[in-house]
Design goal:
Elements (H helix, E strand, L loop, with lengths): L2 H8 L5 H7 L2 H14 E2 L7 E2 L1 H17 L2 H18 L3
Antiparallel strand pairs: 1-2
Helix pairs in contact: 4-5
Keywords: Membrane, Transmembrane, Transmembrane helix
InterPro entries: Brnchd-chn_aa_trnsp_AzlD (IPR008407)
């Protein structure tokens, strides 16, 4: 089932507008996952902020802006969360 769309798309010409539209899908998915990790859901109330995840994401965002390297962003995020946990803030 997962291979069928790939086989069908290989034999078709996809319109440019569809390719442009689909280029936004990875960014949208990653943004949704990122925002979801920053929020804490309380039933019947407004979502709260997961402060440890927010604090750990700030250095990762800075590294992303500076380096544009996915590996460096992951290392910065993991390291900043490790430091927060070491300090007892997470």
């Amino acid at each position: 089932m997962r291979v069928v769309p790939i086989v069908l798309v290989k034999r078709m010409t996809i319109p440019k507008w569809l390719l442009h539209f689909l280029s936004f899908v990875p960014v949208a998915i990653l943004s949704a996952i990122f925002v979801e990790s920053l929020l804490v859901i309380h039933p019947g109330q407004w979502p709260g902020v997961n402060w440890s995840n927010l604090l750990a994401s700030l250095p990762a965002i800075a590294v992303a802006i500076i380096t544009k390297s996915l590996f460096a962003v992951v290392v910065a995020g993991v390291a900043s969360m490790a430091i927060l946990r070491l300090l007892g803030w997470a």
